[in-house]
Specification:
The structure is a homotetramer. The first copy, chain A, is an alpha+beta fold. Chain A has three domains: 2-127, no CATH class; 142-233, Orthogonal Bundle (Helix Hairpins); 252-369, Jelly Rolls (Sandwich). In chain A, 62% of the residues lie in helices and 10% in strands. Chain A is built from 15 helices and eight strands. In chain A, the strands form two sheets. Chain A has a four-stranded antiparallel beta sheet with strand order 1-8-3-6. The longest helix of chain A has 45 residues, at 202-246. Chain A is extended. Chains in contact: A-B, A-C, A-D, B-C, B-D, C-D. Chains A, B, C, D: Cyclic nucleotide-regulated potassium channel activated by cAMP.
């Protein structure tokens, strides 16, 4: 293949994916790059195949440089050059493309320069599924989290000065200065406990014991704050994802806004690839499904029935018959809304008309299947 | 006993229990097998009684092979051979039966081959009580949990390269390659802190301190996610278990669906073996009980009254008299529904008719007892 | 003092307190006993004052024996001898009284026999404030907690056999048997990480890393379960404590059951010793108080006003005036019900009549004070 | 500058800030003081620039003494001398001003005396943002937290006596007394695990394993309690902050108390400095904002529109158009109320009139902008 053919193809490919966070190719490049960077530092491994390792590292770097250049060009055409270049994705792309070359050019030892290849892992960040959720929790709870951090640092400082005072004469080697005692305090308060610096005087041990117990407390506070934040965020995130889908399901279309809000709170969204088994015949079921997008295939005896957008299935499980009567699997990329037995019952208690609709449809199907 | 008698009896026993997850016999076999496998590796213990250990190991293996074969035959008769063989229970049974023999046949050292006996502990999995609940939490929260794992790995990679760069010249022995630094990073970020690899340069310690504090954060996030998932799952699980039982209790039969949903949310299911003390006379009580299945015995002065399905007792505790008037214990395997004082009061505020029924029945009993 | 005077006095004192869990005397005896038992094992400390230590230990033991005998006699008179003797408190008292004497009689070295004095700390158990709450959480959540424990043990077993297999040839000293590897696994999975047994082969370290990350997961599950249980229990416990008190406050007497249930859910009970400052003048306030039992003293300019059972104060903070106008302190042992600003507002939105009553009373007081 | 000019200026400055918790100057002084105190103990660093370090330390101390004196004078003039002197802030100020001088006067080695400078970090405490919230959680949950602490101590005592008994003969050096075993127990139960004291007998290791698993339990309980407390406190704190602001926004003025309580529960307060970007054009939005105080600037094509107190913006995101149409940034110190999409929908379901108002205003703006 001549360069004249490969380059345009690659450019087209990268352009097409400029809007998406990560392509499979980029994941492979990141994994290969970081693995090779790691092997570079293992003397025996590097001595075995130095050329391969160097070649792969260069290939990865070339890919990232290329990707960055193509994205920049693509974005400039759309008039969003600076929007991209200054966005977090743009900065990460720039670092991935420029860090190693700049280090090599500045005369650094190649083995050291390639270590910067570890920054390529940052390219994975935007692709992390629940990241937005995590970030929101950290932002909303930043106040209390910061308080705990300040308390943590205060305990560290007070404890290390106390310990320095108590241990410096007995262990001048390890507790010879406040920074050394600070190292001990962090290692202890996080309950890491390397054991390289350990108090040996009775009073020093009493202080250390109090630091350890405070460590449990800091842990607990931290976790408690995050748990609280997550509970709120999970409820919120699920509502957002489900709301849009609910309105597209004809079954819920006639409901009033109050009922829709109720329904949205209890439904769970589920995205499935094609040919995935949803229900396995003869297993116990405790939820029903609505097809929000895509298509599923019901494997009835002798024939296969396709259900498209807006259809529902598995409702028998909620109407008293726990054993699944037929296997169901997806035939396309499908988005389902899942309604649990528990929520179904609570919902029915408040909206009896919903129950009647599901009941009528279930009876109609049963007649049809016989 | 001749083989002609033992084998059919065993076959019948295993067949009868093919549907259940674990028999007591299987638990004993697993415990014995794993214990013997452990002793096999302790030189002094093995030297004392090599024949006993070998014999017991073989017996356990024989039991598992036998159990697997019988189950396969039993399932084939029911036309569910492949359903069983490919289910997780079937795969675990197959591993338990085949792993050690295959290892022995492949010419492995017997002492090493028997180590595979540890896989027998997997047979305990389906019998774990809250497992289904645990699995659902992990599935529902898989998104955020995965995010935290990715963040964990990213911190590990970035920190280990930084630490390798900072420490490699001072400690070529322990920080001589990125994989070695990765080991340090995992040990530190999980706050395990063996102390076999410890940074000693000032900058290396600052990086390490940041890793430890991140470790607390990762811990906190992880726990927060799981706590949130559990809160939802516990509510759900209890509702499911209770719902079916509530409808069987005549006391609640006349309630509308909204009230039943309310009641179901506050009742707790309790399964008890026979001859278990439920209420001890003269202790303080703060809940009443409904008998959903089985039978209980009230130990009144001079006589014993049996209460069967649908009856309730302990209601005095909710009507102002905290001291239990009589001991109550189960006489069969019994399923109870427990109604706490708190929930009783909240319930009564919304459904005053329930209170009247309980009150009337309590008065009737008091008259009767005098 | 002759023995004839002391003994009856002591007997009367212990009898009087037989119903209560712990007297101050018992706390002192436990603290002294355990401290002396500890000193007994410190050679230099014991050599300094062996007679004092022995004498104090004997005195503590004598107290516990005496207390147990008096309680037994007291209970027998009330016809509850066996109820007490078999209750947990009775068993703990018996252990405290008999363990050391029996050990001494059985010919054990006195220094070893006195170690059993540590069992005296068990006498503190019934006096722990939130214990009942803790126990209920553990009982209600026992299912999932047990599951996590089983999973923990399974990971420990599988990991230790894998590690034994991978490390036994390289480190026969520390990984020479499965029990030794089990020790490593527990130390690692709990993230304790002593560092006395550490894998050094690459594959062994990969297994260890997975064990550590599982450790975080086990931690997280455990905590998540307990957090969920606690949330429910705290709400419940507060409701129980508050309910009884609410009905005694005339202010709430005219409310219907639904409103009372609402009020009970938002009030918090607070028990205070005499002469405790509740409100400090000129500080910011965000709650009001109801006197459920006891008496408080309002420090108005020039005179002191006493408020008894059923009165309320601090209501200005909820009606727009955040600065406290007067100091208030208890004059007897007092039980207060605290109503937070947040809950007050939510409550008023649903029960506007409550707001009017508080408003009217506040205006009346203002007129009175001018 | 002569002293005659500097002193009055400084006095005025400190007086003006006497009411506030911390000035930037004080933060700088604390940071400098603690850093110098730390450097004082590092021999090489101190040898490089002893005069600078001493001078800076003295300057910091002088600042704190001066600040304390000025505050005392300021408070005496307001007649609140004792209120301030005995308040926690006053005590911390006094310690910061007097601890080091008193230590120096009492003849302590200067290097040791200056260590007390670490107490200056206490001055940061009142400025910690979420501290009040943290303290309330600790107070409200003090009962269960104390129980866990008592259980922690009981396990520590029982385990250390058991371990002392099991290990004293094998390791007289490390397990030679109960206090030594207590040190081991605390290090183990907090899962710190230094590894300086490790049991080696089989039974000792079994006890240690149980202690470690209990450690997980203690952790879990602790965290669970704190998480529960935090969930309640966060909801409460947000309500308090938001309530006052909501009533000032004309948009909500006509709502009834029930609706206001509903709205308050879902709004989040956000305080922003001037010139902060709130909305970035072309990003996805999922919340709208109300200006509670301050002013924001909408960057429309060709002109800038200022929105003052009571205005709202970003409402398009809630009415179906997710892409933000214009950038918005603050022009003054601004307090915003944030309404999330999720909460908006839930709110609209219950208060349809709110939706209409927002809808009408949005349409009016659209017309205007065209």
């Amino acid at each position: 293949m001549s360069k004249r053919l490969v380059l345009p193809a690659l450019t087209a490919f990268v352009s097409a994916t400029a809007g998406r966070n990560m392509t499979t190719a980029a994941y492979v490049a990141v994994a290969t790059g970081v693995a090779m960077m790691t092997l570079l530092t293992v003397q025996p491994a590097y001595d075995t195949a130095p050329h391969w390792i160097n070649a792969l590292l260069s290939a990865c770097l070339a890919y990232f440089v290329f990707e960055w250049v193509v994205r920049l060009r693509h974005m400039r055409r759309q008039g969003k050059l600076w929007f991209y270049a200054l966005s977090s994705a743009g900065v990460v792309d720039a670092i991935g493309a420029l860090a190693v070359p700049l280090a090599l050019l500045s005369g650094l030892d190649p083995k050291t320069a390639w270590l910067l290849g570890v920054l390529w892992v940052l390219k994975v960040v935007p692709g992390i599924p629940g990241l937005r959720q995590l970030r929101r929790v950290l932002v909303v709870e930043s106040g209390p989290l910061l308080s705990v951090l300040v308390i943590f640092l205060m305990v560290v400082f007070l404890a290390s000065v106390a310990e320095y005072f108590l241990e410096r004469d007995v262990q001048p080697q390890t507790f010879g200065s406040v920074p050394a005692a600070l190292w001990w305090a962090v290692v202890t308060l996080t309950t890491t406990g390397y054991g390289d610096v350990v108090p040996i005087t009775p009073l020093g041990r009493v202080v250390a014991a109090m630091v350890m117990i405070s460590g449990l407390g800091v842990f607990g506070l931290w976790t408690g704050i995050l748990a609280t934040g997550f509970a709120a965020e999970t409820r919120r995130d699920n509502f957002l994802k489900t709301w849009e889908t609910v309105s597209k399901v004809p079954f819920f279309a006639h409901l009033g806004p109050a009922a829709i809000a109720d329904v949205t709170q209890v439904l769970r969204t589920m995205d499935l690839p094609p040919r995935t088994m949803i229900i396995r015949k003869d297993t116990n079921g405790d939820c029903m499904y609505f097809v929000a997008a895509g298509e599923v295939e019901v494997d009835l005896p002798g024939r296969k029935v396709k259900l498209g957008e807006g259809a529902f299935f598995g409702e028998m499980a909620l109407l008293g018959n726990a054993k699944r009567g037929a296997s169901v699997s997806t035939s396309k990329v499908t988005r389902l809304l899942v309604l649990d037995l528990v929520d179904f019952r609570l919902l029915m208690a408040r909206h009896p008309d919903l129950a009647e609709t599901i009941d009528a449809e279930a009876k109609r199907r049963e007649r049809e299947n016989q």
